Amino acid sequence: MALIEVTDMRKSFGETEVLKQITFTVEKNEVVAVIGPSGSGKSTMLRSLAHLEEIEGGTIRIGGQALVENGDYAKPADIRTIGRRIGMVFQHFNLFPHMTVKQNLALAPRLVKGEPKEKLAGRITELLAKVGLADKADAYPANLSGGQKQRVAIARALMMEPEILLFDEPTSALDPELTGEVLAVIKKLAEEEMTMIVVTHEMSFAKDVASKALFMADGHIVEEGDPAVLLTNPTQERTKAFLARTLG
Ligand code: ADP
Ligand code: MG
Hints:
26% strand; 38% helix; six-stranded mixed β-sheet; 9 helices
C-alpha cells in the first residue's frame, strides 16, 4: 500500500478549476519532485494534502486512512490524527518573528501535543544540530539568513515527528548562494528515508535526490516518471516546452 494515495482530486477557486482529477501515489521512503509552471496547481495540491485547502472531489488516503473519500471529509478527530502524520515547509519560512528559534520549535508540540518544555529540550537540541544550527537556539529569525531561517523551518516541521514532509519551493525565496545549504538538509533527510514531496525548480537536485518526478501543468499531472528520464528526455510536448524554457 502506498503511503499517500490521491485519486481524482478536484479543486476550484470560484469558477476556476485548479486541480483537475489529479491521481498519483507516493510510496513510503520515496522522494517525489514536482515541477511545473507557475499557476499549474502545485501549491494547491500540496496544501490539500496538508488540509490547508479542502478539495471538492476525489480521495486522499494517508497510510490507508482516508482524509477525504469521494469528496467527503473524515470526522474532525480523524482529520487531526491524519494531519499529524504530515509536516509542511513553505517558501517564505513562516517563522514567528517575536519568538526565538527554540520557541518557534517548541510551539506546535506544546500546543498540539501538550508536551512539557523539559521534554522538548532534547529534541530541539538534536534537530538544530541536524540542520547545522546548534548555536542558534536563542537567536531571533530577524538575525538569521534566509537559508538559516529555512533550516529552522525544517527543524520545526520535524519537531512534530511527521511521517511525510511536504516542501513548497523551499529555496525559491533564497539568494542563489544559500540554496545549497537547504538542499543539503533535504538530501540528508532523503538518505534517512523520510517520505517527501518537494515542489522545486532545482532540476539537478530533483535528478539527484528524487525517486520520481511529476510534471504539472494547468491543473493536470501531464507526465510522471524517473527524474533522470523525465527531466532530460520527456515524452510530452508540454514537458519539453517547460524544460526548454527553464533550462534555456
Ligand atoms: P503553483 O503553485 O503551481 O504556482 P497554485 O496552486 O498556487 O499554483 O495556483 C493554481 C491556480 O489557483 C492559480 O491560477 C492561482 O491563481 C489560483 N489560486 C491559488 N490560490 C488561490 C486562492 N486562495 N484563491 C483564488 N485563486 C487561487
Ligand atoms: Mg506555488
